[in-house]
Design goal:
Blueprint lengths: L9 H22 L1 H6 L10 H24 L1 H4 L14 E2 L2 E2 L2 H24 L2 H27 L1
Antiparallel strand pairs: 1-2
Helix pairs in contact: 1-3, 1-5, 1-6, 5-6
Length: 153
């Protein structure tokens, strides 16, 4: 049995995990009963239960793929001294490493989300915070398309 992850972009998987995680936060929070009770009756909740299931499934599958990259290239992910998995930000697959651009994007996205959470915490702007996670998802999608265009030409 030949097991290989050669050709699978680590950058793509990590950015995809970021995108799907933000989408899961958006969907799960919008479907929560706490938010439904605080939202006006006139506001339609645009998230169905299958949206939450899809995003949870996407996060799970993307995490499994990231784990598979780690276990099928163990020489690049395991430290010789402690035999523990290295952080996904330090991943290297063959001659491929997680790029500094991808690290920067993931760090900037989650730093932005943390700052927005800290802004929303005292003011209770929860709907605004939820929309931030949707904008993160849209930004990641646009980033993917521009990267794909750049790689194609």
């Amino acid at each position: 049995m030949l097991i290989s992850v050669v050709g699978l972009s680590i950058d793509f998987v990590v950015l995809n995990l970021t995108k799907h995680s933000s989408y899961l936060i958006y969907n799960a929070t919008f479907r929560s009963s706490t938010l439904k009770s605080t939202v006006s009756e006139r506001l339609m909740i645009p998230v169905a239960a299958n949206d939450v299931a899809f995003s949870a499934h996407a996060v799970f599958v993307t995490s499994v793929i990231l784990f598979q990259i780690a276990i099928h290239e163990p020489d690049h992910f395991v430290t010789q001294a402690s035999f523990t998995l290295v952080s996904p930000l330090c991943m290297q697959q063959g001659s491929q490493k997680l790029s500094k651009i991808a690290i920067g994007i993931v760090f900037a996205v989650w730093l932005f989300a943390a700052v927005c959470f800290l802004v929303a915490l005292p003011t209770h702007y929860w709907l605004w915070l939820i929309s931030v996670f949707e904008y993160i998802r849209y930004t990641d999608i646009v980033t993917f398309h521009f990267c794909a265009i750049g790689v194609s030409f």
